[in-house]
Specification:
With 511 residues, the chain is an all-alpha fold. The strands form two sheets. The protein has a two-stranded antiparallel ribbon with strand order 1-2. The longest helix is centred in the middle third of the chain and has 18 residues. It is elongated and about 85 Å long. Among the domains are: 116 residues, no CATH class; 143 residues, no CATH class; 75 residues, no CATH class. It is 47% helix and 2% strand. A hairpin with a 5-residue loop joins strand 1 and strand 2. The protein contains 23 helices and four strands.
Length: 511
């Protein structure tokens, strides 16, 4: 059994860097493996400066490209990975918001709180202009209540429909009452949330709607439930403080085991994102998966005190030092392959693109951002074809993860991106320079294959069949005993092609 004081193996370091960043540079793997403990490595990853980057540009495509460029060059990849996670969790799309400024502001908010206090995070999201627009809080009035935000606040952001025993966490009546708390909220021209007292639902305006009480049947509050206008959840009574009172009650909600529902739900989703490819919500899991996860989640919550401090950074650290995080690490013996019993995580399209460009030390070209080779397609079009466009998640549920990323069309798009990458020729950092990554003195085909797969960080993920196929390609079916990389034509034909094959391989789609 390992813990925060366990020294990373080389394989551990590679696994950690893959999951918490974009690729695993061999130099960093070598610097961390057999040198740092799990805790030291996690602390380094989490020690990023709290600078607030905000994607810029007049159009949403400009902001999309601004964020992609930032991910390619950032020195804090874990921060960006977590911003991606929260972008999926608090999914908002510019298709409905229709304002790049508001989407950029929300992105900065996600970055500000990505390892902060989760309760404060929720209270800020309540008043985020893009969220107010996307989930119709601005259309939630006392005369015409809109329940969208009240529903998703519980179903997607905090509790989940059901807990880890598949017991319901809330009822329709709770949605109705919470919607009342959010009446009257909108935002001004500067994107700042404002409260309209005249449009807020007060008890005296609608006495037929009853008391502002929630969770009479769930949450451990008893048949009297909890009133979000009263102490201890809200001492200021009715009005603008009601939305904070709702959050205080939700964070006090207990599941059917008497444990913090919010803590288990968020821990489970973060664990699935960083560690193992489980479904991202308990309601999507099998009974066996829920039973397996519960003790792991409870240990992570205990180790991080997440159910009392709500410190996201502490929770992330607890995940990164836990044995369960390393359970999906590639087997030490590469000849064993991926192994049906060892689930691996499919790279998100953004991860696939950004990690490739980072590992190859490439940059995008032009304001419109495209790979400088092949079909010269815009990176936004490339990602759209792969199934992910930033600032435009498909639904309020975010994107579907894991195998949902891969089908015949999206896999073809990944392959086309790989072709464009290796076709980006010429000088400058926008282009592909394999000679900067490979020792041209190598001539043994096996050594060349290993050098390429080392550079791309997948040597440990290859089966014997994978390696044999790459060698077969490099040697024209075994007819060449050596390969002369000092020859320009050979490099352009074989070395570039080998990089392309590895980028298109099943191993490279996983981490």
């Amino acid at each position: 059994m390992g813990n925060e004081n366990t020294v990373l193996t080389t394989a551990d370091a590679r696994h950690l860097l893959r999951r918490t960043g974009f690729g695993a540079p061999q130099a960093q793997v070598n610097a961390w493996g057999m040198r740092l403990t799990r805790g030291q490595a996690a602390d380094q990853l989490l020690a990023f400066p709290r600078r607030v980057f905000k994607p810029i540009g007049r159009e949403i495509d400009d902001r999309h490209n601004s964020w992609i460029r930032h991910m390619i060059t950032t020195r804090a990849p874990l921060q960006e990975k977590l911003v991606l996670f929260w972008h999926d969790h608090f999914a908002s799309s510019n298709d409905k918001v229709g304002d790049p400024v508001l989407m950029g502001n929300q992105n900065a908010l996600l970055r500000k709180f990505c390892v902060g206090n989760f309760k404060a995070f929720l209270k800020a999201i309540n008043k985020d202009a893009a969220m107010l627009e996307f989930l119709d809080t601005v259309r939630n009035s006392q005369d015409q209540p809109n329940e969208n935000y009240a529903r998703e606040l519980q179903e997607l952001f905090t509790l989940g429909v059901a807990d880890y025993n598949n017991s319901r966490n809330y009822e329709q009546a709770d949605i109705v009452q919470i919607a009342r708390a959010f009446t009257g909220w909108s935002y001004n021209r500067k994107g700042v949330a404002v409260f309209g007292d005249g449009d807020h639902d007060y008890r005296t305006d609608h006495p037929e709607r009853g008391a502002k009480v929630i969770y009479r049947t769930q949450g451990g509050f008893g048949p009297s439930g909890a009133d979000f206008t009263q102490a201890p959840y809200n001492s200021a009574g009715e009005g603008p403080t009601e939305i904070d009172g709702v959050i205080e009650i939700i964070f006090a909600h207990k599941d059917s085991d008497g444990q913090s529902t919010v803590a288990r739900y968020i821990t489970g989703k973060l664990f699935a994102f960083l560690a193992q490819p489980y479904p991202k919500r308990p309601a999507q899991m099998t009974p066996s998966q829920r039973a397996t996860l519960k003790p792991i989640l409870d240990q992570l919550i205990h180790d991080s005190s997440f159910d009392t401090t709500w410190n996201i950074g502490a929770l992330v650290r607890a995940i990164l030092v836990n044995d369960a995080f390393y359970a999906t690490e590639v087997a030490a013996n590469p000849q064993s392959g991926f192994g049906a019993t060892d689930p691996k995580s499919v790279k998100w399209p953004v991860d696939y693109v950004v990690s490739t460009l980072r590992v190859l030390n490439m940059r995008l070209r032009g304001r419109s951002a495209f790979v400088n080779g092949g079909d010269f397609r815009l990176i936004s079009d490339q990602l759209n074809a792969m199934g992910q466009v930033l600032f435009e998640p498909p639904t309020v549920f975010g994107w579907n993860w894991e195998t949902a990323w891969i089908n015949s069309a999206t896999l073809l798009a990944r392959c086309q991106f790989a072709v464009d990458v290796i076709s980006a020729r010429g000088s400058g950092n926008r282009n592909f320079h394999p000679t900067r990554l490979i020792n041209l003195a190598l001539s043994d085909p096996t050594a060349i294959v290993n050098a390429v797969t080392d550079a791309l960080g997948v040597t440990d993920q290859l089966t014997a069949a994978d390696q044999a196929a790459f060698i077969n390609y490099l040697t024209d079916g075994g007819t060449q005993a050596t390969v002369d990389l000092t020859d320009v034509d050979t490099r352009n034909r074989k070395l570039n092609g080998l990089f392309g094959l590895v980028l298109q391989s099943p191993a490279y789609q996983l981490h």
